[in-house]
């Protein structure tokens, strides 16, 4: 079982490395989206630093959503997913490994990059560190929740709207607590409460999402 | 003179002829670059007087400005090669474009880096959304896109043609991007700091231009070296490369 | 071992087949026949548990496969129209991973051997996307050489294979049957079944 | 020739209608991105209305880019694109029809939706109308430029994010003039210059992009 | 009409074939043979102008196809491993659009007729995604019944077709040849060529 998980992780990472640019491009997407905002909104420093946490979080959300799109799509098209379903391993485990790999390859780089972008938007050092911390705790939840949506959209041709309706209510708390933490710290309320709620969401997602994703995949392949 | 005949240049555009020529030229450029670097840095850091306002921090300029110049210039040259390669199907041109891309990206990155380091003492921030800075950042994205596309396609022939097309599109866009960013910024507000306030001592000029040439020669040397290995890789089935490998050397 | 009765499949408004029953024991081969669109693929996916039958049930060793789940799947090897071969991975990596995720991890050597036997010598280390149509199929089929599954379900295994490969594949099927394995397959190509028990199942009218 | 273009348009629209929700998804994405902002940035009205044009334009950019992903991907996978290349029609014409259809199906709905979203973000009526106008003039350029990127990234695995990396920097002028128009009008400078530059960019793109896309497709299929 | 000389194809490090020459006149069929991976598909795509040859050139009526471009393509019908059939459109719509974009628009009636002849009666109005493997191929092959192209290039046209369909297809090929058409095809299946001139081109070693 652990064996199968290890293989899955290896597979995902090998695939990503083979495609090389895939990991980098998610990161660059994140960077570019963040950089678009000053261009659209204008270069005033106060405005920028005020909206910075929101911008970073929205960009992280989009980057993670975009890359999740392909989480199962290829395996579905080329028949690999069928084989997973027919494999003797519990599907939820395989799914969990896939999500883990996904986060390592796309979520983590975003977290590591966020301080530089925070600086560009004129955040101060404390806010930057807090920002990175919220991303570190929050992005796994994005991958986990998104995986359920990715599973559900597989078969259903235009299930996009349904997916958004299902996933968004779950994404929004992450966004609110993530970007809210910095604001709370700024106004002196302290970010502890925000951080622990964010952590709780991630843990809960880790417990439930793999099963839900597995179920979604089974439905999609029927 | 042989150099003035068209045939000579046509011949030089064949990878087979160019390979040994590049091999001979590269070390000379590298040596020249190294010497100029040493001279320029010495003049810049020890001879030139400190600025009355910025004290010593202005000395980053000697590195920053040549890097920034070269970074922009390399992009144009690279796209030019790409366009030639795409239109006239000369293999060497696309190879030159591929050879220039990483250097250009690195120069851009270093330009950003040195500029940011300079920004802290002068503006009090590592980054501001000034027109020049923004368009320079976009330049980095363009380089990254170029390289990412080339890396993502495994067939080298197809990769170089695809990235060449991207370069062509990019070159159409460069002026548009440049002016849009400039206009975008000036419409809002003037920058609080202008970069042109430095009066140039002669020794400063010397340092600056020496280093500018150093960066030039460095870029040429690196590009020639890299194009040699690209030639070997892409032409590895050509008879002359096989012979070369058998002979075991240059 | 494998038994099914009263199977019915409905697609859209159409009943593709109904009241299909079949029985397969160790060492037997079942050849599902029928014209294009007669429902062969649908039946086969039903037997894998990928599609729920409208009516009827499928049993493995006396128990319903919807109860057995993983215990049934561990005995099963299915290769269908889609190959499950990753374009970026080499043939070798594809085989190893497919085997491992199918529940029967294999060693590097076994994988090399299998690929050599299936006729991919010298191509083991190429990413699958540059392989020809027939070579891609071979990468998928190589799993047959390394699996421990007893029941093989193959949907048109001979597609895109050249004459040599077809012969080799027939040999592999024979061996599997002689060792007490079971095979269910479909094919439109001329196919000489092995000398063990062969059953036929005709869907729709015969040609 | 015109015949072939008509068929192509019909085909694209029929496909989109068959999938129904696909058009809606782009629109929905646009709405979601815009709606996420108040959540991430906080509900202060002045801030929101100040960043509104920028946010709307960035969202339009991202939405258009997302849908571009699929512009050629399917035709490539199922071999239709090969057939286009082998058809007796000039490829650039077919490409132009495809881009036109793409804009009708994704760009236009965004334009029509933008007033509602502008209202949500607290823009005044004049700004809202101007905003919609800039989108109307600017979004065709997005489809056109994006099509080149879509052609270049075909068949490249993980092309989605790579596409973003290639195309977003080229989108920047459109973004700047689009979102700048509203600001210019607000500060009394007048938006005419912005609008005419935006128009010029679109026209230029319409002249060049089909050829560039056709060339890109030929390269991708080699 | 079609002539090629000195064709060479290189893939990765490997020279797949070199110095291939062929000549095909009205009413002739060229059967390209070879094992899996011998380069049949690559050669065929070269003849369509989809892949540039490393060396050599291809002529149609004496002119190089890279000069002729659209004038050559108007004479060409290519059906390869990928079908170019849209999953969401019905068989009828697929056929009509493919014909129109290929330069030979057809009427509604012609399309119905062609689909009936190719054996899809009653399935014309189903979206292609619910069709079986063989039925999908028939939708693509129906273009052969309505095209005016003289040169047909078919990469494994018999794949996934049942016995009836194979027979029918052979009939269609015969008719085309008798009317002075040209056919280039590959297949791994047993195939009885028609009674007109048949040429063979062997890539790599023979079986
Ligand atoms: C990350 C920050 C920076 C970036 C990306 C950057 C970028 C550039 C670029 C692209 C150029 C060449 C432009 C041209 O010649 O038109 C340049 C030149 C120059 N930069 Fe920077 N710069 C940065 C920070 C700074 C700072 C902080 C200063 C000093 C206050 C500075 C001073 C200069 C000067 C004096 C030149 C030469 C201007 C001329 O000769 O035209 N830069 N920089
Ligand atoms: N929604 C639907 N409405 C009507 N018919 C449908 C629908 N979905 C599937 N079908 C029919 O179901 C059949 C699917 O059959 P299946 O794929 O099992 O055939 P097959 O025997 O494997 O054929 P082949 O030999 O071509 O692979 C087809 O005839 C198809 O037309
Ligand atoms: N990058 C590469 N490196 C090495 N070999 C390659 C590369 N790309 C393609 N090939 C080889 O080129 C050949 C492709 O052949 P092609 O698809 O034309 O074969 P085919 O004759 O159509 O075979 P099939 O009967 O299986 O369809 C394969 O043998 C493949 O291994
Ligand atoms: Mg079938
Ligand atoms: Mg082939």
Could you please describe the fold and organization of this structure?
The complex is a heteropentamer, with two copies of chain A (222 residues), one copy of chain B (250 residues) and two copies of chain C (207 residues). Chain A contains nine helices and no strands. Chain A has 222 residues and is mostly helical. Chain A is 86% helix and 0% strand. Chain B is an all-alpha fold and 250 residues long. Helices cover 79% and strands 0% of the residues of chain B. Chain B contains eight helices and no strands. Chain B is globular. The two termini of chain B are 27 Å apart. Chain C is an alpha/beta fold and 207 residues long. Chain C has helices at 40-47, 65-68, 70-73, 91-101, 108-117, 133-141, 143-146, 163-178, and strands spanning 2-11, 14-24, 29-33, 55-60, 63-64, 76-79, 151-155, 182-186, 198-202. In chain C, helix 4 (91-101) crosses helix 5 (108-117). Chain A binds chain D through residues 19, 21-22, 25-26, 28-29, 32-33, 36-37, 39-42, 47, 50-51, 53-55, 57-58, 61-62, 66-67, 69-70, 74, 77, 157-161, 164, 168, 172, 175-176, 179, 183, and chain D through 19-22, 24-25, 28-29, 32-33, 36-37, 39-42, 47, 50-51, 53-55, 57-58, 61-62, 66, 77, 157-158, 160-162, 164-165, 168-169, 172, 175-176, 179, 183. Bound molecules: protoporphyrin IX containing FE, adenosine-5'-triphosphate (2 copies) and magnesium ion (2 copies).
Summed up:
The complex is a heteropentamer, with two copies of chain A (222 residues), one copy of chain B (250 residues) and two copies of chain C (207 residues). With 222 residues, chain A is an all-alpha fold. Chain A has helices at 2-18, 21-41, 45-68, 73-77, 80-86, 91-120, 125-153, 160-186, 192-221.
Shape of chain B: globular
Which percent range describes the beta-strand content of chain B? under 5%
The main β sheet of chain B shows up as:
none
Q: Which consecutive residue ranges of chain C, at least 5 long each, have pLDDT under 50?
A: none
